[in-house]
Amino acid sequence: NIFLQYEQFKVASAKDKYKLTVGGFQGTTFDAMAWHNRMNFTTKDSDNDQWSGGNCAIDQYGGVPTGGCWYRSCAAIRPNILYNHQVGIRLNNKWHSLPFIEIKIRPHNCNI
Fold first, then answer.
1. Which of 8, 14, 50, 79 has its CA 20 to 30 A from that of 35?
2. What is the Cα–Cα distance from 69 to 71, expressed in whole angstroms?
3. Which segments of 26-95 does DSSP mark as H helices, in order?
4. Nearest Cα residue to 5 out of 24, 108, 111, 80
């Protein structure tokens, strides 16, 4: 299993374009979300990424929609695209298929 765990995972308000803040990484792979830290959320109709070639949510792979995410100049993790009919994560410069991605969030002061 692959997991990424963060001490801090914060999503700002709509007014701040849902800016992502992550920190305190632990996991079984590299910190895939660090590349996207402090980025605003990008969708097909709201291009907030830094990619000069277009909109990462729709244009990154020859017009194949990649879906909304916190892109910098496109992705190290793509939770909303099918890669070989599954969601994908990039590890060691190669895309890997995952049958699903699960995000669990709990309050910082939770003692579980």
1. 14
2. 6
3. none
4. 24
Which residue pairs, CB below 8 angstroms and at least 24 apart, start in 41-45?
A: 41/11, 41/17, 41/68, 41/69, 41/70, 42/68, 42/69, 42/70, 42/71, 43/68, 44/68
pTM comes to 0.75
| In the block, residue with structure tokens 């929609």 | 65
